[in-house]
Structure formats: C-alpha cells, structure tokens
Amino acid sequence: MTDTGPKLLTRSPLGAVASLGSPLALAAVFQFAFNLTEVWIFGQIGDGGASLAGAAASDIVTGIFALLANGLGNAAVAEISYCHGAGDALGERRHARQALVLGAILSLLSAVVGLLADPVGGLVMADGETRVQGTAFLRIMALGGFGTIYLAFTVAILRARGDSVRPLVLVAVMSVVTLGLEAVFVLGLFGVEPSGVVAAGWITVIARGVVSATAIWLIGRGLSLRPPKGEGFVVWGALRHQLRLGLTSAMQQSTRLVGFLILLAIVAARFGGPEGNPTYTAVNVWIKLDLPTIILAFAWGGGVAPVVGMALGAGRPRFARRAAWSGVGCVTGTSLVTMTVMLLFAASLAAAFIPDDPMAVVQTDALYQYAAPVYAFFTAGIVISMAYNGAGNMRAPLIWDAAIILGVQSVLAFVLARPEGLGVAGVGIAIAVSAVLQGVVPGVMLKFFAPWGERGSLKLGR
Predict the structure, then answer these.
(1) How far is 149 from 153, CA to CA, in rounded Å?
(2) Which of 51, 128, 146, 442 sits CB 3.0–4.6 Å from 133 for a disulfide?
(3) Domain limits at 157?
(4) Could you read off the pLDDT of 345-361 as tens digits, one per residue?
C-alpha cells in the first residue's frame, strides 16, 4: 500500500481533510444508492412484500454487528492513525492485528446468531412467508457476516493510514457486482430461474467476503501483519484498550437509533386513530429521507478522525484542532445542499414513498420546515464527535449525544407532541431544538475544552 498518511500533514488542514474525506463521501453516496436499489429489487419479487419485510427484519439483527464493527473500527482508527503520525510502525502493526482479532471474534458471534436463525426469526419477524424468507436470509447473512464485519475493519485500517481512494474503489466494485448479480438471480433476468432473497443473501456474503479478503491483502502489502520477535499476534493490553474504546464508540453511535425509536414510540401512542397514523408514517419517512445527510456527515467525520489522530501522533495539536474545524466547514457545505433539496422537494420525495397517504405527505413536508434548516448544526456535531474519536476520546461524544438526543429531544417530544396541542409542529420543534444543541454543544467543547491542548496531545495508553 502506498504510504500516503504522513504526507497529509504536509498539506493544509482543509486540504488534508478534503483529500481524505471526499472519497469517503463518494463511497457513502454510492452505498446509499446501492441500498435503495436493493430495496427496489426485493420489492419486485412478487410475494406481497414478504421478502422485503423479512430482509428488513434480518437487517435489524445483523445491523447490531455492523454497529459494533463500526465502533471498534473507530477505535482502530484512533490507535493506528496516532502511531502512523508518530512514525511508530510497530504500533501500527500491533493495533492493526488487534483490529483483525476483534473482527474474528465478532464474526464468530455473528455465526452463532446464524445457527439460531429460526428462534431469532420467531422473535422479530411476522408469521407466514415473511418469517420463512426472512429467516432464510438471516441465516445466510449472519453465518457469512465476516464479510460485512471485516469490510468495516479493513476500511478503518486503510483510512487510518491515509488511504480512502481504495476503499471507494472496493465499495463501488462490490456494489455494482452485487446489484448486477441480484438483478439476474433474484429477478430472473436472461431466463435464469429467480431465487428470491436467498440468492441475494449468498451473492452479498460472497461479494463482501471477496472484497474484505482483498482489503486485508492490500493492508498486508504495506503493513506487515506478522508480529515481531518476542511479541504474540494478540497483545492483550492493546486488545482490551481497543475493545473498551470501540464499545464506547458503538454506544455513542447507537444513541441516535435509540432516539429515533423513542420518538416513534411517542408518536405511535399519541397520534393513532381510526384512519391510521399519518404522523407516525411521516416521522418514518423523515428518518429515511434524512439518511443521505447523516451518511455524508459520518463520511466527512471519517476523513477528519485519521487526520486528527495523525496530527496528535506527530505532536501537532493545533493542526488537529484546525482539521476538526475544516471538517465542519466541509460538512456545512454538503448540508446546505441537502437542506435546499429537502425544503424544496420534501413533499415530492415523500409522495414517491407513500403515494397513497396524502396526509402523511403533508405532515412530512411540515416536519422538514423545522428539520431541514438545522442540518448544518447536527452534521457539524457528528464531525466534531468523530474528531474526538480520532483523538481517542469516545466518552465525551457519548455523554453529550445521550443527554441531547435521549434527554432533550425525547422530553420535548413528550411534552410538545400532542394532537390537542402543537400536533406535528411539536415533533418538529423537538427535532429542531435537539439538532441545534447537537451542533452547539460539541462546537463549544471543541472551542474551549478540546481533548488536546496547545501543550501536547491526548495520551491513549499505548
């Protein structure tokens, strides 16, 4: 692998973040387009949406492992990028090995879920064809979960060393090949007997497995994974530290999901009626339509974190701070674009998802009058959180996200979101206030209480 990491520090902070974050942002857009296309393919199977619903329920289960892999990957980025910036090649090798070990452990746990697919499916899937198809899909995806898990770890290792172009290429090739094969074997193009979501599961795990193996090979070309004399492949102290950081990061990422679930529960309980619950539908559509903005924010944050880690490893805390603010500038630019799109076209996009529920379309558009104008705030907060992660501080973002999303947003929604009160506007106000705080609080922390100071960098216990 071309050793591009330390060269990032010869650029301006903005240049470093842009060169590393731009390919990650493109990869994020590509992956989102892939997910939407796959959902469309599953919807064409012709079983009344049973396969689509079963696959979606399966994704909730396997998504737990993806969340853990991303959190542990963030810990690997913090450790490896710091060593990379400090010129500590042995440390890079050590922490890359521990990431691969954690990937193996997580893959084994995923395989156990695959072996228990029938009882797990009975808990989370509806009866009938949905459970039949969903359980079959879950069994394949969980047993072959090593591909998904190692994709997260290997991309983390590559970007920790300043390489985000090859992850983009790998994700792009994997997505195109997967969709092409799914179109043939799931839909039955070119006279092939259609095999439904079972074929999609096999195609997905094989494609991701091949890509993950290729990524490990790329890592090994530039970073020997063989331990030096006197050191085992597993270094327990480093492994435990990476695990602790990674689990904290995974908890921090999960707060957004839990916040969505609480908001949905409040709306489901408050706004139901004999003619359905268009407000509940609108909140679900808002969550779906917000995904591109959120994914782009995490992509820019993924570019910031390694730059921060490298700068701290090189003893340049001021560069690290400027890189974090540069990432905020980059994500503000993209959030202004998505804000404009949603303010102008939220109703049209919602109608494409729910053409038979005009009231839900109206309420989705009403939600975006509150949610879209504050995109710049909560996306900036995501980037700053990732900058903290790059510095090895996973705890502070966990604390402020839990307090704002689970505390402020949930309490405001509980108080304001009542049909006899503000109605859907109460939901929108809760979302908007929470989003503003998600940007302001991290911004104040970065300005005055960053985890690195002018006198030196955060020590990560290496």
Answers:
(1) 7
(2) 51
(3) 1-234
(4) 888 888 876 777 788 88
